[in-house]
């Protein structure tokens, strides 16, 4: 099986980007170990603090954020970092070539139940003329990403990553600590009979999403003419991994409760990286009103509605918004 380096070289990645990715993955390997220790290492449970999102931080949120921050800051490759767990941008090396946005531990509410969690990351070029701690540097559309992916801390530790030349799946071989290519150029099935959405929010969705999901639930007797299955991991990394591997549609749609935060998921370090992976695997990634990767961000913790997955199913969903 091909090792990470040779896949990245085959995809034409510049050396410094390869070194940055390897550095980031070294941090994720440490998180994988800490997560696997669970209760044995006293890392479960919540802290007494809240993050900028108003969410209570889990101990593992804080630990994972610290591991990635320290590792990237010391690397010298990174000009600045934006993290779900950091209110402001963290300036690193003013001469660094890259910006990194990340959710250090997505799905952290799953830590207490030993369910799927992961790290999501997005890498883009750092504008050299901006100060290292200038948040404006991060306000680039997702189409500007040079690399994106997630590390899934599951029964095996897996990496899904793209650098713009396809989406590849890697598995961590813990006997030597290397990520090996286990599926190159994964292609999301264009059709599906499986959807992922938190249906408890149904009354807060916009009417097109309410009608779309109602028609899925109507099954063979309804306008879609087939029965659908539903899955919900409550960790985007877990749901997206399933969609990449066997197709599906994942949605965290516009929520009428608070029009100022039109969705739950954050653009820079959740929606954009997942959209890049999905499009590189032949899927689609939309807000319902347009392509996620064309959004010009207004602020680093901006939230957007997310509808992504199997091309034909996302297109069918978007028909309801017309
Ligand atoms: P946490 O990291 O707070 O667990 O949130 C995970 C997440 O941002 C995303 O990974 C899930 O898809 C989504 O929230 C689940 O949201 P609900 O808990 O509202 O279903």
Automatic annotation (TrEMBL):
Cofactor note as given: Binds 2 magnesium ions per subunit.
PROSITE patterns per record: FBPASE
Record-annotated Fructose-1-6-bisphosphatase class I N-terminal domain positions: 7-183
Designated gene of the protein: fbp
Amino-acid positions noted as binding Mg(2+) 2 in the UniProt annotation, renumbered to this chain: 103, 106, 270
Family listed: Belongs to the FBPase class 1 family.
Principal subcellular localisation of the protein: cytoplasm
GO molecular function: fructose 1,6-bisphosphate 1-phosphatase activity
EC number(s) per entry: 3.1.3.11
Gene3D superfamilies: 3.40.190.80, Fructose-1,6-Bisphosphatase, subunit A, domain 1
Subunit details: Homotetramer.
Membrane-spanning ranges: none
Residues given in the record as substrate binding sites: 106-109, 198, 264
Annotated residues for binding of Mg(2+) 1: 84, 103, 105
Reactions catalysed, as given in the entry: beta-D-fructose 1,6-bisphosphate + H2O = beta-D-fructose 6-phosphate + phosphate
One Pfam family cited in the UniProt record for this chain: FBPase
Keyword Repeat among record annotations: no
Compartment(s) of residence: Cytoplasm
Domain Fructose-1-6-bisphosphatase class 1 C-terminal: 188-321
Organism per entry: Pseudobowmanella zhangzhouensis
Protein name listed in UniProt: Fructose-1,6-bisphosphatase class 1
Keywords, comma-separated and alphabetical: Carbohydrate metabolism, Cytoplasm, Hydrolase, Magnesium, Metal-binding
Cofactor(s) this protein cannot do without: Mg(2+)
């Amino acid at each position: 099986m091909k090792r990470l380096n040779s896949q990245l070289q085959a995809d034409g990645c510049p050396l410094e980007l390869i070194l940055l990715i390897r550095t980031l993955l070294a941090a994720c390997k440490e998180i994988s170990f800490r997560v696997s220790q669970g209760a044995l290492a006293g890392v479960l449970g919540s802290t007494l603090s809240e993050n900028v999102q108003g969410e209570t931080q889990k101990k593992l949120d804080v630990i994972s954020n610290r591991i990635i921050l320290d590792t990237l800051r010391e690397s010298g490759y990174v000009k600045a970092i934006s993290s779900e767990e950091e209110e402001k941008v963290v300036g690193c090396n003013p001469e660094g070539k890259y910006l990194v946005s990340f959710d250090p531990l997505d799905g952290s509410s799953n830590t207490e139940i030993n369910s799927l969690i992961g790290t999501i990351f997005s890498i883009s070029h750092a504008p050299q003329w901006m100060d290292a701690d200038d948040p404006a540097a991060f306000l680039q559309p997702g189409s500007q990403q040079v690399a994106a992916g997630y590390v899934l801390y599951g029964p095996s530790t897996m990496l899904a990553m793209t650098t713009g030349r396809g989406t590849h799946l890697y598995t961590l071989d813990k006997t030597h600590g290397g990520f090996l290519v286990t599926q190159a150029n994964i292609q999301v099935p264009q059709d599906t009979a499986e959807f992922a959405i938190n249906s408890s929010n149904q009354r807060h969705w916009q009417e097109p999403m309410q009608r779309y999901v109602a028609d899925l639930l109507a099954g063979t007797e309804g306008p879609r003419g087939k029965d659908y299955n539903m899955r919900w991991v409550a960790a985007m990394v877990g749901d997206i991994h399933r969609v990449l591997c066997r197709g599906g549609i994942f949605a965290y749609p516009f929520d009428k409760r608070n029009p100022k935060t039109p969705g739950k998921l954050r653009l820079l370090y959740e929606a954009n990286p997942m959209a890049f992976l999905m499009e590189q695997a032949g899927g689609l990634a939309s807000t319902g009103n347009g392509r996620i990767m064309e959004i010009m961000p207004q602020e680093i913790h901006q939230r957007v509605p997310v509808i992504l997955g199997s091309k034909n199913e996302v297109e069918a969903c978007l028909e309801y918004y017309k």
